[in-house]
Amino acid sequence: MTPDLKGLLIISAIKVVGLFIALMVGVIMVVWVERRGSAMLQDRLGPNRIGPFGLLQNIADGLKNFFKEEVMPAGAEPILFQLAPLLSFGPAFLMFAVIPFAAPLPGFDVTLPVLGRVVYAGPMAMVVADLPIGFLFIIAFSSLAVYGITLAGWSSNSKYALLGGLRASAQMISYEITLGLSLVVVLLIAGNVPLGQVVAFQQQTTWFVLAAGVAYLMFHVGAFAETNRLPFDLPEAEAELVAGYHAEYSAMKYAIYPLSEYAALITMSAFIATLFFGGWDIPFTRWDEQIATAWSFEAVARFGLTNLVFLIKTSFFIWVFVWVRWTLPRFRYDQLMYLGWKVLLPLGLVYIVIMATAVLLLERAGVPHDVRYGLYLFLVNVPLLIGIVWGLDRRRIVAGTVRRVRAEA
Amino acid sequence: MAIGVKVMRRPELGVSYLRASLKGMALTFSHFFRPKVTMQYPEQTAQEGFWSLSPRWRGTHRMLTDEQGRAKCVACGLCPQICPANCIKLVPGEDEQGNRYPLIYEIDEFRCVFCGYCQEVCPEEAIHVGVHYENSEYERGRFVYDLERLCAQTHPVSSLWDPADPKGE
Asked: Distance between CA atoms of B91 and A107, rounded to whole angstroms?
């Protein structure tokens, strides 16, 4: 085994294990934030008994789920029923593999006692898999998540679970289009590149929330639908479907569903931060963009600070998800479909044409990839955003059947 | 259109979902910092005034005693008679002066529905339902309260509902 291969394997293993642990701890923390946060928003205190500030409550709940009885409903499809939780668990974690979470560290060339000489050449990208097809990877795996939910609903042999699964499949397929269309705009600006390059492009120009504000809005709405969170939590609408697609699940098989929901929540928040808010970029500085070639305090500090900034951005969007959940009521199903197919789909298509034209003109005009590039695109976005907000505000885009009822009456 | 179908007439224009949503978000966020209503039960209890029970609360029973410490009960038999849950066991006795007193007076708190009829019907104002709710025990049998235990209770007694003051003012 060459020293280079050894270095690659060791570093990859550290990144994979570290990220997995971080995500699992993150899920526990997010569940805690959700429970305490929702309580605080409702003038309650929430679980505060187990551990400091109730932090260990979810560990206790998880432990409880391990000791509970697993129930297999009569007439359930045994293989798919077992497989479905795993299918929804995997994608949420896998998607995180392409997200760059900090500034790169320098490479190394050391001789370790047991392993011998270990070499890692060049800057160490802080991402598990710096795939050149990062975007396709996101789209592919976010659409894989729907199988876990749909199969859970179908294999449970229960009408409520089936209805939940059906709703989930229709909803997630509809909003994947929105998600995909908004990603196309990001692709147009940044080129077909790994996510690390998207972050670098945002550092050179501006954050894409300015350069592609409408795409950000669409992506955020789509993210709500893809993670099955309120106001789009129709697959598990308690008032209508008992618990939706996971109504028949018990013990740890049930617990995997909330687990993967919160993992998907973290991943989606990280995607929003990476694609539209500069990832690990510290705003208004150039210091974080320098790539260290040798180990120094500065290189480690840059790694730590950029990682912290990435965490802060991701946490903010997680909080937005929680905050929205405990504020807005659930959409009706026809409103959801109306918004997805009749509003966001045409909007996305028109927006792609506009942005493609703008990007083409900027490239033809030879505008360099710096702040000006982003600001010109921002100027294109401002009238569009004003138009959309006006439409949402005055014309009430989410009208759906209200118009129909009025027409009949 | 079918009879009794209510058609909601919502205003077509002048309603803003966007602003309403943002206003809602602001409202929920302001609640984040408001004082919380949660009572931290084992440390804080209703007696501390943070939360308080109604004086009309009907909880576990209490038998009042006279100056000599004897139960006021004269074993007239009205309370087992009126009790809808049949939870009061009364065996009357009589001493040399002809004073009636209960030989056995037991209330099964598990059978009791806490209607308060026993307190209402009692001519001697002896048996009362109490303003009290902490009743945990290690054995089921301990929930049959005998006379001694009923007399030993110290919690305040219920004022019940007063027809002259129906709202409790």
From this structure: 92
**Residues of chain A where predicted confidence (pLDDT) is lower than 50:** 399-405, 409
> Using CA atoms, how far apart are residues A355 and A190, in angstroms rounded to an integer?
12
Tokens representing A184 are 């196309």
Q: Three-class SS of residue A279? A: coil
Encode pLDDT of B6-47 as tens digits.
776 665 555 566 777 788 888 888 988 888 888 888 777 766
For residues B11 and B20, give the distance between their C-alpha atoms in angstroms, rounded to a whole number: 14
Given CATH 3.40.50.2300, say whether it is the number of domain B55-152: no
3-class DSSP assignment, residue A112: strand
Q: What is the arithmetic mean of pLDDT over B65-75?
A: 86
A33 neighbourhood in chain B, CB within 8 Å: none
The amino acid sitting at A3 is P
A chain contacts of residue B7, beta-carbon cutoff 8 Å: 405, 408-409
Option in A41, A408, A409 nearest B28 (CB): A41
Report pTM: 0.80
Best of A35, A36, A41, A232 to mutate (most B CBs within 10 Å, chain B):
A41
The per-residue pLDDT for A316 is 92
Spatial contact of A100 and A128, defined as CB atoms under 8 Å apart: no
As a three-state string, the secondary structure of B119-164 is HHHCCCCCEEEECCCCCCCCCHHHHEECHHHHHHCCCCECCCCCCC
pLDDT for A399 equals 47
Distance CA A286, CA A21 (A): 31
- The dihedral through the CA atoms of A276, A282, A285, A286 has a sign that is negative
Q: Which residues of B touch A45 (CB under 8 A)?
A: 36, 38, 40
Q: Are B37 and A40 in contact (CB under 8 A)?
A: no
Q: Where are the domains of chain B?
A: 55-152
Q: What is the 3-state secondary structure (H, E, C) of chain B?
A: CCCCCCCCCCCCCCCCHHHHHHHHHHHHHHHHCCCCCCCCCCCCCHHHCCCCCCCCCCEEEEECECCCCCECCCCCCHHHHHCCCCCEEEEEEECCCCCEEEEEEEEECCCCCCCCHHHHHCCCCCEEEECCCCCCCCCHHHHEECHHHHHHCCCCECCCCCCCCCCCC
What is the phi-psi region of residue B42: left when phi exceeds 0, alpha when psi lies from -120 to 50, beta otherwise? alpha
Interchain proximity A396–B16, CB inside 8 Å: yes
User: pLDDT tens across A379-390, in order?
Assistant: 888 888 888 777
Put simply, the answer to whether A327 touches B21 (Cβ < 8 Å) is yes
* Yes or no, beta carbons of A406 and B8 under 8 Å apart: no
Say yes or no for a CB contact (<8 Å) between A392 and B17: yes
Residue A43: its chain B contacts at CB < 8 A? 31, 34-37
- pLDDT digit string, tens, across residues B129-164: 988 888 888 998 888 998 888 888 888 888 887 777
Contact residues on chain A for B29, CB-CB shorter than 8 A: 41, 323
